[in-house]
Design a protein that fits this description.
The protein is an alpha/beta fold and about 280 residues long. Helices cover about 40% and strands about 15% of the residues. The chain is built from nine helices and eight strands. It has helices at about 15-25, 35-40, 50-60, 80-100, 125-145, 165-175, 195-210, 240-250, 265-275, and strands at about 5, 30-35, 65-70, 105, 150-155, 180-185, 210-215, 255. Strands 1-2-3-4-5-6-7-8 form an eight-stranded parallel beta barrel, surrounded by four helices. Helix 7 (about 195-210) packs parallel to helix 8. The longest helix has 21 residues, at about 80-100.
Length: about 280
């Protein structure tokens, strides 16, 4: 059975304890966790044994699973120095992940936009951007293999991996079991494709369904852009999306995001109601 979770940065809190408690109170079982919520930085220089213990104890005390660590930086940043700095930070995070009990680290395949790694830029589709992406992903995968960590990439219309076919190509060219997919049904529609919703969802699961390591649940209000609204408040066919998820055999965490803390209880209830009977484990 799959479980439902939340994204930690969407629950601003004065400290780690309050952050975890708020997500647990909303009804989450899992968390895609960003170390910014514990230490103010996604890629801390190091963590002491007592800091590691505080995170693990906090998750245990609140009955939460650390579903994934967020490791996002702009993997095709037009500034090579920024790419190199991000790659070093990601390597540190991957090395820390086993100490935290995490098995998955999430990535952002990035944009050539110099200010926003999620913003569409025409140069993101260039052969040069693809080569930069291969270099950064392969470096990260090498580190992940050394530490027993799986990395997750997702299709995101504002990123270099902006179609499910490009996501499939990346997995095939890297060729490592330590690189998998974050499935997000609200991120796969290019402009003009919403009328083909079920066809495009079928294609996504046909190409990537056997490689899902994490799933996201949010919604979109227009095609040609990534989803930015909470699950069930947009146009995504949620019953069909979750049916395809079940048919793929995915049994991990489905992380809700693009929501405000006060929306979490209602949106978690919506996803539970839209899922096939018996697919989701209740908290």
């Amino acid at each position: 059975m799959a479980t439902l979770g939340l994204l930690s940065p969407e629950f601003p809190s004065p400290n780690l304890e309050a952050n975890l408690k708020a997500m647990a109170a909303a009804g989450a079982t899992g968390v895609q966790f960003d170390l910014v919520n514990a230490f103010g930085h996604t890629f801390p220089e190091s963590l002491t044994d007592s800091q590691i213990a505080a995170i693990k104890d906090g998750f245990a005390a609140n009955g939460l699973e650390l579903s994934a660590l967020s490791g996002t930086y702009n993997m095709i940043d037009p500034d090579p120095a920024k790419r190199a700095e991000g790659a070093k930070g990601l390597d540190r995070l991957i090395a820390l992940a086993p100490r935290l009990g995490a098995k998955v680290v999430t990535l952002c395949t990035g944009s050539r936009d110099p200010e926003d790694m999620w913003k569409r830029h025409e140069d993101s589709d260039s052969p040069e951007a693809w080569q930069d992406l291969l270099v950064t992903v392969k470096q990260a995968v090498k580190t992940a293999e050394a530490h027993g960590i799986v990395l997750g990439v997702e299709t995101e219309v504002g990123n270099s991996i902006n179609t499910v076919r490009k996501a499939r190509r990346l997995l095939d060219e890297v060729g490592s079991p330590n690189l998998k997919i974050i499935m997000d049904g609200a991120n796969i529609f290019q402009k003009g494709e919403l009328p083909l919703m079920r066809e495009k969802l079928d294609e996504a699961f046909d190409l990537l369904g056997n490689d899902i390591v994490l799933a996201h649940a949010k919604d979109l209000d227009r095609d040609g852009e990534a989803g930015h609204v909470p699950a069930g408040l947009g146009k995504l066919d949620y019953p069909y999306y979750l049916q395809k998820m079940q048919e793929s055999g995915y049994q991990g965490s489905i992380i809700l995001h693009a929501l405000k803390p006060e929306q979490a209880v209602e949106r978690l209830a919506f996803v539970r109601g839209a899922a096939p009977a018996g697919y989701l484990k209740l908290r």
